[in-house]
Specification:
By secondary structure, this protein is α/β, with parallel strands linked by helices. Helix content is 51%, strand content 18%. The longest helix has 35 residues. The chain is globular. The termini are far apart.
Length: 329
C-alpha cells in the first residue's frame, strides 16, 4: 500500500511538473519575415514575442510566409488549438463570426482614432467576449491592418458618379453591394492576380490600404487614387481561449500586457507607414486626390445604406448594427 501511495504521489508530482513547464505559443503569419513596409503586422508579432519571452518562461514561435496554410486555414487551426495564434484579419473572422462585419460599414469612422476609441471601448469589449463565446478565440485587442481603404482607377474619382461603369476588384458581398450601388460592377479577383488583372483590363480599379497598394506595385497600373477612406481595415489579435484559460494568472497577465504593447506599436507604425506609402505612391506618378467633406458625404449617402440593408439581412445579430452606430455617435 505504501508503494502504491508513493507511486501515486510521484505521478501527481510529475503531472504538476509537466504543467509548470514552459508553454510554447505557435503563431501562423501570412507575410514573409522581412517584407518592407509591413512592420506594423510582423513587427507587432515580433514585439509580442519579445515581451512574452522577456517576462515569462513561455516561448513564442513565429511561422512566417503562410507556411502553415492560407488565412482561413490558420484561423481554423487556431480554433482547434493546433496553433495558438494567427494574423487572420477582419474578412477571415467574418467566415466564422458574421457579426464582425458591422465594423466594415462604409464611412463608419471619421478617423483612425475614432475607430480605436470604439474598438477599445464598451462596444469592442462586448464583441470580443461574444467572439470568445461563439468561436473559442479570445480577442486580446484590435490591430490596424493598414488603416483605411481607398479606391483607385485609371481616371479621377471625385464622386460616386465617377464610379459608374468601372469594374472594381472587391471581395465579399459587403464590399460588392456598395460598389454596385454606385453603378460600378464588382469582380472577386484573387489578390495574387490583382496586378495582372489591372494591367490587362480585367478590372479597372480596386480598393485597399495605401500600403497594400504599394506592396504589389499597383502604382505601375493605376494612375489615380481617391482618398475615400470608406472602410477601416483591422484585425482581432486572437489566441485560442482554451489554451489561454489553462494558463496560470501570472502567465495570462504577461500575454495581456504583451498584446497591449504590441497593438500600441502596430497602430503607431501603421500610421507612419501610411504617410510613407502615400509619398511613395505620389513619387511613383499616382495622382492622389484628397476629398472634401461634401464629396465624402456623397459617397457615404450611396454606400452606407446599401451596406446596412445587406447586413440586416445577413448577420446573426442585426442589433449589432445599431450598437456600433450608437457607439460611434
Amino acid at each position: 500500500m505504501h508503494i502504491l501511495r508513493s507511486s501515486a504521489l510521484a505521478a501527481a508530482l510529475a503531472l504538476l511538473a509537466a504543467a509548470a513547464q514552459a508553454q510554447e505559443i505557435k503563431v501562423g503569419l501570412a507575410l514573409p519575415e522581412n517584407l518592407p513596409g509591413f512592420d506594423f503586422v510582423n513587427g507587432m508579432y515580433k514585439l509580442f514575442r519579445d515581451e512574452v519571452e522577456a517576462n515569462s518562461d513561455m516561448t513564442v514561435d513565429l511561422v512566417f510566409g503562410g507556411a502553415l496554410g492560407a488565412p482561413n486555414e490558420r484561423l481554423a487551426q487556431m480554433r482547434r488549438g493546433v496553433i495558438q495564434m494567427s494574423d487572420a484579419a477582419d474578412g477571415n473572422f467574418a467566415t466564422i463570426y458574421p457579426d464582425i462585419q458591422v465594423i466594415q460599414i462604409p464611412f463608419l469612422f471619421d478617423s483612425e482614432a475614432e475607430a480605436w476609441a470604439v474598438l477599445d471601448g464598451p462596444f469592442g469589449q462586448a464583441m470580443a467576449e461574444d467572439i470568445r463565446a461563439r468561436t473559442g478565440i479570445r480577442v486580446l485587442g484590435w490591430w490596424e491592418s493598414g488603416g483605411f481603404k481607398h479606391f483607385s482607377a485609371n481616371r479621377a474619382i471625385a464622386s460616386p458618379a465617377d464610379m459608374a461603369g468601372l469594374k472594381i476588384r472587391v471581395l465579399g458581398p459587403l464590399a460588392t453591394i456598395p460598389v454596385e450601388a454606385m453603378g460600378a460592377s464588382a469582380a472577386p479577383v484573387p489578390f495574387n492576380e490583382l496586378y495582372t488583372s489591372l494591367r490587362t483590363g480585367v478590372v479597372d480599379g480596386q480598393d485597399n490600404s495605401v500600403a497594400t497598394f504599394n506592396l504589389v506595385k499597383l502604382y505601375e497600373v493605376q494612375s489615380h487614387m481617391a482618398l475615400t477612406g470608406h472602410v477601416y481595415a483591422f484585425g482581432p489579435l486572437g489566441i485560442n481561449d482554451t489554451f489561454f484559460a489553462a494558463l496560470p494568472a501570472d502567465r495570462q497577465q504577461v500575454i495581456l500586457d504583451a498584446a497591449a504593447t504590441a497593438i500600441a506599436f502596430n497602430r503607431a507604425t501603421s500610421r507612419a507607414t501610411e504617410a510613407e506609402a502615400l509619398a511613395l505612391a505620389r513619387a511613383s506618378g499616382v495622382t492622389v486626390a484628397e476629398l472634401a467633406p461634401e464629396a465624402k458625404a456623397a459617397f457615404r449617402a450611396v454606400m452606407q445604406p446599401a451596406a446596412i440593408d445587406w447586413l440586416r439581412a445577413n448577420i446573426d445579430t442585426p442589433a449589432q448594427i445599431d450598437a456600433i452606430l450608437a457607439a460611434v455617435e
